[in-house]
Write a sequence for this structure.
């Protein structure tokens, strides 16, 4: 589904990604871990099409086609979803209006009519229930004044509404209390199918207890320096990154 | 002949037939003495009137008509309103739809005859002793406009829509329109105003509106400035407020090539409130200049000012907000904000707050910002499948929404939304 080959990217002359290889197949869950500043969020932004990053080398294919020349919205229309590490506050745009526009623009791109208002509302209600989101939420300004946890929950709410093929969740677990983590993880699990895939960026094993990954990768200095199974995450939790960094630097 | 001389000559030819002879004579003398303002005047430093006044204009046009269908494009049609319309400077019976018992709404020329006491008492009385030459010019030469009188304890249930059309004109036209709005004690009214050219010829309008807000009155005045690109407008509005009254003037500037708004509030009674808000959304070769003045002449009043500007292409904006708090005007609250988005490198805004505060127990604040659309927010929206143009539009709506959300006539709010969507070239219906 997602195939990244030798991806190198920089911003304002700083080389951030130095050769990423990643292969995500339908139905899989991949976890990406790694120290602060290693390039995890950069990787997710580049996949989502952020134009400020300059891709210097490599390829990104989605469903067998290059998406390198596509705009962020076109990538979204293909089914790529990024849950932001730091969701943006947009005063003056309500959650419901934003979702309506977002959903209907995606439908338009697929040649579908806008979703009837009644259906849309029903769908919102269902997904809100799934994520245990309070009622008044829809009329609030997007992310404005939301607590850290509410922002993250809102990201997953959007994901639930848009039903992407590939969801990249950038530290969606940070800032969530135990209950919220369970709810969000539950939501993600419910949305999983054999046709879609999830990339989890996280620092903590605890998320991976809920959403069990098929693969765990360690990103360091803009490269994936180690890949393994879910056991690798446990090992990292115990021993930290030092041993991997040493291994990597010896190469 | 240059425009100034032409105007003076026109005055001399009509002088004897006009009312308020003395005021008009004094005024034409001011024009004679000071001429049109130039960029050397502090108040006109960033706005060059020269290209507008060096054009050749006729000072009147022959009577003409427009269809009712065309009228409907420019007014609210689903709200019950009173419509007073003018074509080429003349009152239009055909287009106007006035059904009032409790209030008076009529052309000013008629009011001079039928309501002469009120007109005599108020005409020119909201203007400063030494008005600038444009206001003076209007005083000297204006012959027609709108008269609104809302008697004591009366609520004008229907909003009033004022429309000045120009059409079928044989040459470029320079118009002086004049409105007089008197709202008595404990009375309420809502008014919209627009100037609309239908012709290919250029129209330059120099308008003066005087608003008298008596004790406990409530006034909402909406100016919709969405004229054709061959039009220029100088809109002078003078508001005089008594005690415990609220007057709001909102200005929505989208069209025209040159717009200068001079909006002044004089707070003469305590516990009153003045609100002025605006959205400016302009693009190629357009200029909008907002000059506002709030004179807190007494204590315990509040003024709120919020102007939002979005400037595309080589559009140019000017904002100058003067707030005067007189020495005894304690407990004054004066808030002013002017926020701007520049969408390109060649768009510009000159923004200047000008606070003159001579009382010590006051709360005054002002904030001017000039920025671009937030890249992070744009990326966020686009990553959710919202195309670039629509994402931009959404952010601009959100930016302007504080002003729009204050519009009290629902149909007007919808109409403004539609105009904005059209200007931004998007089809999404955004009810933010
Ligand atoms: N605009 C920029 N200019 C220069 N450096 C940048 C810019 N944006 C990001 N970086 C750098 O790129 C590196 C990778 O950042 P990134 O946000 O991808 O890290 P991360 O792995 O997500 O870290 P964290 O775990 O803290 O979220 C960091 O060193 C960061 O400072
Ligand atoms: Mg990060």
């Amino acid at each position: 589904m997602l195939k990244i080959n030798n991806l190198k990217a920089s911003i304002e002359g700083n080389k951030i990604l130095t050769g990423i290889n990643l292969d995500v197949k339908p139905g899989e869950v991949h976890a990406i871990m790694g120290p602060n500043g290693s390039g995890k969020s950069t990787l997710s932004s580049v996949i989502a099409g952020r134009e400020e990053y300059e891709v210097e080398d490599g390829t990104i294919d989605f469903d067998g086609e290059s998406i390198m020349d596509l705009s962020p919205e076109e990538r979204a229309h293909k089914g790529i979803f990024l849950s932001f590490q730091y969701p943006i506050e947009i005063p003056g745009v309500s959650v419901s209006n934003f979702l309506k526009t977002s959903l209907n623009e995606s439908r338009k791109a697929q040649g579908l009519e806008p979703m009837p208002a009644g259906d849309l509302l029903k769908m919102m209600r269902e997904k809100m229930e799934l994520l245990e989101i309070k009622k008044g939420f829809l009329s609030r300004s997007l992310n404005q004044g939301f607590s850290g946890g509410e922002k993250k929950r809102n990201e997953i709410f959007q994901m639930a509404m848009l039903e992407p093929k590939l969801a990249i969740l950038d530290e969606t677990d940070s800032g969530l209390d135990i209950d919220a983590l369970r709810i969000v993880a539950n939501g993600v699990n419910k949305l999983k199918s054999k046709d879609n895939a999830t990339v989890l960026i996280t620092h903590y094993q605890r998320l991976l207890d809920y959403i069990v990954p098929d693969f765990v990768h360690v990103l360091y200095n803009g490269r994936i320096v180690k890949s393994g199974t879910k056991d690798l995450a446990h090992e990292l939790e115990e021993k930290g990154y030092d041993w991997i960094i040493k291994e990597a630097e010896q190469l | 002949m240059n425009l100034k001389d032409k105007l003076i000559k026109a005055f001399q030819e009509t002088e004897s037939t006009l009312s308020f002879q003395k005021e008009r004579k004094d005024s034409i003398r001011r024009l004679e003495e000071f001429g049109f303002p130039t960029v050397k005047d502090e108040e006109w430093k960033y706005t060059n009137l020269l290209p507008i006044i060096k054009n050749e204009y006729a000072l009147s046009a022959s009577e003409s008509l427009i269809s009712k269908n065309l009228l409907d494009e420019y007014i609210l049609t689903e709200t019950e309103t009173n419509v007073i319309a003018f074509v080429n400077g003349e009152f239009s019976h055909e287009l106007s739809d006035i059904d009032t018992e409790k209030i008076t709404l009529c052309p000013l020329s008629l009011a001079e005859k039928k309501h002469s006491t009120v007109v005599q008492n108020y005409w020119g009385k909201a203007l400063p002793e030494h008005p600038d030459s444009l206001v003076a010019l209007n005083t000297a030469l204006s012959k027609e406009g709108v008269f609104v009188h809302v008697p004591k304890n009366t609520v004008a249930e229907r909003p009033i829509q004022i429309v000045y059309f120009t059409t079928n004109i044989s040459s470029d036209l320079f118009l002086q329109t004049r409105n007089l709005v008197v709202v008595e004690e404990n009375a309420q009214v809502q008014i919209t105003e627009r100037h609309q050219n239908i012709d290919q010829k250029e129209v330059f309008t120099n308008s003066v509106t005087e608003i008298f807000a008596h004790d406990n009155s409530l006034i909402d005045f909406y100016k919709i400035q969405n004229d054709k690109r061959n039009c220029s407008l100088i809109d002078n509005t003078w508001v005089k407020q008594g005690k415990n009254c609220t007057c709001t003037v909102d200005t929505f500037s989208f069209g025209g090539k040159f717009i200068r708004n001079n909006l002044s509030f004089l707070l003469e009674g305590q516990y009153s409130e003045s609100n002025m808000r605006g959205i400016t959304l302009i693009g190629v070769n357009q200029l909008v200049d907002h000059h506002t003045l709030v004179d807190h002449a007494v204590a315990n009043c509040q003024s709120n000012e919020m102007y939002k500007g979005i400037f595309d292409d080589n559009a140019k904006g000017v904002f100058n907000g003067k707030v005067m708090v007189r020495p005894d005007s304690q407990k004054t609250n004066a808030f002013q904000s002017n926020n701007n988005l520049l969408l390109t490198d060649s768009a510009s805004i000159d923004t200047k707050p000008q606070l003159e505060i001579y009382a010590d127990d006051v709360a005054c604040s002002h904030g001017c910002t000039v920025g671009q659309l937030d890249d992070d927010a744009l990326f966020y929206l686009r990553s959710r499948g919202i195309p670039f143009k629509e994402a931009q539009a959404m952010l601009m709506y959100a930016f302007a929404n504080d002003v729009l959300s204050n519009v009290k006539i629902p149909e007007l709010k919808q109409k403004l939304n539609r105009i904005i969507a059209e200007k931004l070239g998007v089809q999404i219906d955004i009810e933010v």
Notes: The two ends of chain B are 52 Å apart (CA to CA).
